[in-house]
Structure formats: C-alpha cells, structure tokens
Amino acid sequence: MKGRILPRDELSGLPKTVHGGQAWKLRDIEDYSHNLNPFGPPEDLGEIIASAVGEVGHYPDDSCSELKETISKTFNVSSECITIGAGSSDIIRNVPNTFFRHDDKIIICKPSFAEYAQQCRIAGASVSWNVLDKENDFRIDPDRLIAAASSAKAVYICNPNNPTGRIEPRNNLIKIVRACEETGTLVFLDETLLELVPGYMDITLSGSVDKFSNLIVASSLTKSFAIPGIRIGFGFANTDLISEMEKVRMTWNVGQIEQTVANVLIRDRMDYVDRAAALMAEESEIMNTSLKEIDFPAGPVSDSFFYFSSVEPLGMDAAEFKRKMLSKGIMIRDCSSFGEEYSHYIRYSVKDRERNCRFIAAADSVINGR
Asked: What is the three-class DSSP state of 334?
C-alpha cells in the first residue's frame, strides 16, 4: 500500500468552523440565527444580475477598477486603498497568508467570529485569546488589549462583535490602533456588520486607513443587502498593505456578475441599508421590552441589531432552547461553538414587527407553556 499524502502540521486536528444561517435547509423555519438585512435582497436584484450576463463571456476585470471607484466615492477612501474579495471571508483569509509567519502571536477577542482563528492557524500563526468579561458586558478593555498586543504580530477586533453585538466607540478603536502602531502590531478591524447600525459613518475607521501604517478594515455586502449567496467583500488599508495583499489575492476572485451587483448596490442603493438599520433600531427596543415581559433574559437593548443572551436563568442550555424554538418554527444560534463557556448563550437577530412577534410568541410558549 502506498503511503498516505499528509497535510501540513497546521491542519492536524483543526476542525471546520461552525456558522449560522442554516435554516434554508429546513421547511417553514424562520431563521434568527443569521444577521442579515430583514428586508431581504433588493427586489430588482434579478434584473441587476441579468444586466451582467452579457459580459460573462470574457474574464472579469481582475483589478475591479470600476467597483473600486464606486467604493472610493461612497466611503471616502482612495481606490488605491481598496482590495476586493469574494466576501469578507476572502479578506480574512488573505491577511494571514500575506503577513503572518510561523508561530507569530495573534491576539483575538473571545468570543468572536471563528474564521479569524481558523485562518491564522492555517497560516501557522499562534492564537492567544483576549477574553471579553461578562462583568464588563463583553466589551473590550482597551488598556488590557493594548498591553497584550505589545508582543503580538496582530490583533483582531470585530465591530459590532459577533456574537455579542457590542459596538466599540470610535475613540477606543483609534486609541488601540495608535498604541499598536507604536509596537508594530497590525490591527484587523472587521466592520462587516456595521452598516446595519444607524450612524455607522460616525463609527467606521474605513476612511482613516491612510492615516495608519497598521490598520486593515474589512467589510462586505453579505449582511447589509442580505445576499450571502453572492460573494462580495472589500478591505481598506494604506497602499503599502494593499499592494502586498494583492500579491496573495487569487486572480479573478470576483466574477463579473458580482462586480456588477456590487457596483449598482453601493452606487445607488445604500439608502436601502439605511432604512433597514433605522427599522431594526426601532424594533429592537420593542422586541427587547416584549421579551422581558414574558421573563426571557434579554438584558439591555443591544448596541446593534442582534442579541447575545444566556438562557441559563430559564434552566436550559443553548442546545435545548434551540431545539424547543425550532419546534415552534424559529431557528436561533447556539453559541456553544464559540467555546464551552458559552454553552448557555444564544444569538438572535432583530427583524420586522410581524416576524418579531412570532419570535416572541414562540419564546413565550417555550418558557411559559402558552
């Protein structure tokens, strides 16, 4: 028998990551496990896609020049400070492959999006956790993070953080980036969920990347336009960082249809995202109050449009609560995949009034047997 072809050591024992948004596989289930625009994709998305079909007979523009110009105008960033990816996950993968060496120390907040650690480990980097304290409402302690980052190659921050929904204010982020710049530490800031928060332009650091030597900001259209099946993401950084990332980016990674969709949506439809953000901010308060009235441990109103709540006061763990809600036609996110210590935590999003009422009724039935 011939010998087995072995993978790199970094892949040994490395499991696949777990993500939400799986209710599409089931019938008659409302999915609260993902964080998408509740309006769904724009109604004319099919027409936008159709307008690009005539161009698929040739290779797409590898530089995504037209799309970069559109993003540049919308986000007030030089087009040379932009890289385009097949979703923000493409950017997340490219960063370690561009900048990290074997055993580089990477600081990642916990709990947070699993792909950061996954891609860092695949690249051979060593991950250390900056555990977000429940007593501090799962918010970042800037001074503690800065101290940990002083000996690290990079720090990862998700804003708003997935799964906790907490938003770090702009001044805290700038403080962290500046301190890390002094120690030569890269800061990867994921703002994929930020556009669905009212006033996001007052929080984002995308327009500041040219002021720092160490900042990369990632975003995408997945959540804001509810199009996870069309992979469009983009990253912002100074020109030196972008030029290195472009060496690693897969050629023709974003097809012509994706480029056309992104160009039209960013150029003409950002008001669609703004309306969704305003709606969810209003509905979040109403939903939160209603959940508390049925004795669901909702906690304070979320900074964002999704919630991270412990169901331990209900005498259940997340897996049990998920099963019971699923029997009522609602899927929530069991957050135990973020670590065993979060086995009692669930994540759920805010939608429109009608669907939120169904969520509340389902929770009421699970909790109170009504």
From this structure: strand
pTM reported for the whole predicted model: 0.94
Task: Report, in this order, helix, strand and coil percent for the chain, each rounded to 5.
Answer: 45, 15, 40
Burial per residue of 98-108, b for 16 or more beta-carbon CB atoms within 10 angstroms, e otherwise: bbbeeebbbbb
Q: Residue 242 and residue 306: Cα distance in Å, rounded?
A: 31
Residue 359 and residue 347 in contact, taking contact as beta carbons nearer than 8 Å:
no
> Which residue stretches of the chain are H helix?
45-52, 65-75, 88-99, 114-122, 142-149, 170-182, 239-248, 256-268, 270-293, 318-326, 353-368
**Secondary structure letter of residue 16 according to DSSP:** P
Q: Are 101 and 124 in contact (CB under 8 A)?
A: yes
- Express each pLDDT in 79-114 by its tens digit: 999 999 999 999 999 999 999 999 999 999 999 999
d(CA 219, CA 262) in angstroms, rounded, equals 12
Q: Which two tokens stand for residue 96?
A: 């370690």
Reported as a single tens digit per residue, the pLDDT across 115-144 is: 999 999 999 999 999 999 999 999 999 999
Domains of the chain: 9-42+271-368 (3.90.1150.10), 54-269 (3.40.640.10)
Going by DSSP bridges, is the β-strand pair 215-220/330-331 parallel, antiparallel, or unpaired? Answer: unpaired
What secondary structure letter does DSSP report for 15? Answer: P
Helix (H, G, I), strand (E, B) or coil at 214: coil
> Is the CA virtual torsion 322, 194, 119, 144 positive or negative?
negative
- Segment among 9-18, 140-149, 220-229 with least mean pLDDT: 9-18
